[in-house]
Amino acid sequence: MRKAQAKKLPLAPDPKFNDKMVTRFVNCLMWGGNKTVVLSAFYDAIDKVSAITSEDGYEVWKRALTNVTPAVEVRSRRIGGSTFQIPTEVRPDRKISLSMKWLIRYSRERNGKTIADKLANEIVAAAKGEGGAFKKKEDIHRMAEANKAFAHFRV
User: Which residues pair with 74 in a beta bridge?
Assistant: First the structure.
């Protein structure tokens, strides 16, 4: 084990929107380590979102992220030989991480030619309260609600 927890390295804001959340999203989206390619794909997706919705694409992306962000999740805990799904609140940093991962995962599973198309369609769907990532959040919340009886086992 570590003596002290590792320090989080500060992220540099992205060049276009000057936002650290965009950098974090692009880092999550990146496969193979070529950041400039992924950054241009993200900007293309934002442009396509603004073309589809006729709103500011960046604002739609932010709204999509907040719509997908979970408030509670279930964690497995073994008590007396049986495993319970215990609903717990999600830490703020983990909320952002989960929402980004879900948005990226379900955009990759979508139909479309390029990642920019897929991401744009998933962002638009999530902003409306639809799509795979939003459904994932709803399922997690529903599971937590169903297991509310075991909340007293929380650590």
Answer: 87
